[in-house]
């Protein structure tokens, strides 16, 4: 299902995965679009609308006004909107307008002044994310 | 203008004022206006130019890639914001969605969707695949749908591959389009979903089952 870990260029800075990422134009969920269900992207997705369900992406941006309810797996997550659910990402940046509720599993996290975060933010080594070949629903 | 000026002012003022007024409208405006209009017209046509913009934006990106995703925090964020302001939703080819989409705007789909899509203008690209019902005011199909289309206006491009029924009021089919199913022009006359066949089949699961059954009986 989630082929993220296999293809993940988490620690490998090889050029090949970077190219495959950038060939694909980012998906965009507009403000008027609501999605209910699972999203799997081998690339980047920007969400300004509403998503209920899990998201697996290389890079996820929740733009301000965007709202996600569900778990998120990505290499990088940038949040400027609302998120209610767990984040599994080596790199997480929570911007000033963000509202996050849930656990944030991370290796590197940035929280901007003004962001509202309620929940724990457990640190995990990068190897933890490399081994995530599916959403660890039962894991802490 | 020139008439008023003549009456008000002295004879000397006439030629100087008239000349610039005559020259201005002729040369630059009329000549410039034509090409501008031509460029404007395609942009007003639904989503096509947006697709072109995407195509342009895609090659532009490879300039940035050397930075891995983790390193490029500030730069990629503004680009999606810009695109967000300009264009409607885009489901790119790398995206696979299992579930339902509901939109009050136009959607461009190039990825894979298993589930129903509801939008205003729905454009389904060549490599896109949708399993489920596509509802809209205008549906443009260049890819594959397995399921059903319910839309006032339907356009099937030459690369379209449609398996299932099409409920419509208006339809355009380009030569080369593949259709396996029936065309039902009575959209809106009988309520869309309460078709006799799905009702008889009473399958709770959404489109694929009922439509395949309908398609089978149609043949």
Total strands of chain A: the figure is 16
- Indicate the percent of residues in helices of chain B: 25-40%
Strand content of chain B: 25-35%
Q: How does the helix and strand content of chain A classify structurally? A: mainly beta
Sheet with the most strands: spatial strand order of chain A: 14-11-8-5-2-4-7-10-13-16
3D shape of chain B: globular
- Report the order of strands and helices of chain B: HHHHEEEEEEEEEEEHH
What is the residue-mean pLDDT of chain A, rounded to a whole number? 83
Number of domains of chain A: 1
**Structural domains of chain B: how many:** 2
Q: What share of residues of chain A is helical? A: 10-25%
Overall pLDDT confidence of chain B: 67
Q: Secondary-structure element sequence of chain A?
A: HHEEEEEEEEEEEEEEEEH
Question: Which spans of chain B of ≥5 residues are poorly predicted at pLDDT below 50?
Answer: 1-86, 194-219
Please state the structural category of chain B.
Answer: alpha/beta
Give an overview in words.
The complex is a heterodimer of chains A (140) and B (219). Chain A has 140 residues and is mostly beta strands. Chain A has one domain. Helix content of chain A is 13%, strand content 39%. Chain A has helices spanning 4-7, 15-23, 126-130; strands spanning 27-29, 33-41, 44-47, 50-52, 55-56, 59-62, 67-69, 72-73, 76-79, 82-84, 87-88, 91-94, 99-101, 104-105, 108-111, 116-118. In chain A, the strands form two sheets. A ten-stranded parallel sheet of chain A has the order 14-11-8-5-2-4-7-10-13-16, with no helix packed on it. The longest helix of chain A is centred in the N-terminal third of the chain and has 9 residues, at 15-23. Chain B has two domains: 2-44, no CATH class; 89-218, no CATH class. Chain B contains six helices and eleven strands. In chain B, strands 1, 2, 3, 4, 5, 6, 7, 8, 9, 10 and 11 form an eleven-stranded parallel sheet that branches. The model of chain B is unreliable at 1-86 and 194-219 (pLDDT under 50). The A-B interface holds A 9, 13, 15, 18-19, 21-46, 48-49, 53, 58-59, 61, 63, 75-76, 78, 80, 90-91, 93, 108, 110 and B 54, 57-58, 61-62, 64-66, 68-70, 73, 76-77, 79-81, 83-84, 87-105, 107, 111, 115, 119. β2 (33-41) of chain A pairs antiparallel with β2 of chain B.
């Amino acid at each position: 299902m989630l082929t993220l870990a296999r293809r993940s260029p988490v620690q490998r800075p090889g050029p090949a995965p970077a190219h495959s990422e950038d060939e694909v134009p980012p998906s965009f969920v507009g403000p008027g679009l609501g999605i209910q269900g699972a999203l799997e992207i081998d690339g980047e997705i920007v969400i300004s609308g509403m998503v209920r369900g899990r998201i697996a992406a290389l890079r996820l941006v929740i733009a301000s006004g965007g709202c996600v309810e569900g778990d998120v797996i990505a290499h990088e997550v940038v949040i400027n909107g609302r998120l209610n659910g767990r984040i599994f990402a080596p790199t997480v940046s929570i911007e000033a307008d963000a509202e996050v509720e849930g656990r944030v599993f991370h290796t590197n996290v940035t929280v901007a002044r003004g962001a509202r975060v309620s929940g724990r933010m457990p640190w995990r080594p990068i190897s933890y994310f490399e081994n995530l070949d599916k959403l660890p629903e039962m894991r802490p | 203008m020139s008439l008023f000026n003549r009456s008000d002012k002295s004879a000397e003022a006439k030629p100087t004022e008239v000349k610039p007024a005559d020259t201005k409208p002729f040369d630059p405006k009329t000549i410039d206006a034509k090409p501008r209009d031509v460029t404007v017209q395609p942009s007003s046509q639904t989503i096509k130019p947006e697709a072109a913009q995407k195509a342009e934006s895609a090659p532009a990106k490879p300039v940035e890639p050397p930075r891995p995703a983790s390193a490029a925090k500030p730069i990629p964020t503004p680009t999606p914001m810009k695109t967000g302001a300009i264009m409607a939703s885009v489901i790119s080819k790398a995206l696979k969605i299992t579930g339902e989409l509901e939109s009050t705007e136009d959607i461009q789909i190039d990825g894979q969707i298993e589930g129903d899509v509801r939008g205003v203008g729905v454009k389904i690209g060549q490599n896109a695949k949708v399993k489920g019902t596509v509802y809209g005011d205008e549906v443009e199909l260049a890819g594959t749908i397995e399921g059903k289309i319910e839309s006032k206006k339907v356009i099937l491009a030459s690369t379209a591959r449609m398996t299932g029924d099409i409920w419509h009021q208006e339809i355009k089919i380009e030569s080369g389009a593949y259709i396996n199913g029936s065309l039902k022009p009575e959209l809106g006359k009988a309520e869309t979903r309460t078709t006799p066949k799905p009702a008889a089949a009473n399958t709770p699961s959404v489109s694929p089952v009922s439509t395949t059954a309908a398609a089978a009986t149609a043949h």
